């Protein structure tokens, strides 16, 4: 039982490049979330999903897209990376309406 | 004003000290309260979970919720260097119409010195 896993762990992009971050969970959770964490800003919700095939915007959705084609996977895409998207990205999942379980994070640097 | 306020610290204490971490909030609809611990360069992990008001104890950790004051606390007894981490409070009204979204505090960085 791996819980929540994220791929890749680290990535360096040049401005304008695109990439996809993959989150996978093996707990059969309905809800999944993408956050970014920046110094002094805490955790900020980017997008979330309440079930397979659904997505919704969070607090800071601009510049990101998401897809939930399979229940166990939640993908976060950056179409045209900007230096302001340099951050640590965390995925989380939840089986109910409260507690969330987090992945180990992806450190992204945009040059 | 943020919905959840948490002193970011950093907080430095000697080993064996009692640590008190706190959050205040403004939304009276919050009913579920959590504390997460985040070690450096790791993901947050759930430490304590409390529903509504009251206390919950787990080993050296005690979580308190005072809904009348909109104030939650985490106490760590006999603190150890291994407790050095960032502690984040989180809360939600609950209910599936909320999408399970949590509102997080900024996190308090704790350092326990040997």
Number of strands of chain A: 11
Discrete helix count of chain B: 0
Beta-strand level of the residues of chain A, as a percent range? over 45%
Largest sheet of chain A: 7 strands, mixed
> Which spans of chain B of ≥5 residues are poorly predicted at pLDDT below 50?
none
Radius of gyration of chain A: 13 Å
Beginning-to-end CA distance, first to last residue of chain B: 37 Å
* Main structural class of chain B: mainly beta
How would you describe this structure to a colleague?
- The complex is a heterodimer of chains A (111) and B (114).
- Chain A has 111 residues and is mostly beta strands.
- Chain A is built from no helices and eleven strands.
- In chain A, the strands form two sheets. In chain A, strands 2, 4, 5, 6, 9, 10 and 11 form a seven-stranded mixed β-sheet that branches.
- In chain A, β5 and β6 (56-57) form a beta hairpin.
- Chain B is mainly β.
- Chain B is 0% helix and 54% strand.
- Chain B is built from no helices and eleven strands.
- Chain B has strands spanning 4-6, 11-14, 19-25, 32-38, 45-51, 54-58, 61-66, 71-76, 85-92, 103-104, 108-113.
- The model of chain B has no long low-confidence stretch (mean pLDDT 92).
- The chains are: A mainly beta (111), B mainly beta (114).
Topology readout:
The complex is a heterodimer of chains A (111) and B (114).
Chain A: E1 4-7, E2 10-13, E3 19-25, E4 31-38, E5 42-49, E6 56-57, E7 64-67, E8 73-78, E9 87-94, E10 101-102, E11 106-110
Chain B: E1 4-6, E2 11-14, E3 19-25, E4 32-38, E5 45-51, E6 54-58, E7 61-66, E8 71-76, E9 85-92, E10 103-104, E11 108-113
Parallel strand pairs in B: 2-11
Antiparallel strand pairs in B: 1-3, 3-8, 4-5, 4-9, 6-7, 7-8, 9-10, 9-11
List keywords for this structure.
A: 111 residues; mainly beta; seven-stranded mixed beta sheet; B: 114 residues; five-stranded antiparallel beta sheet; 0% helix; globular
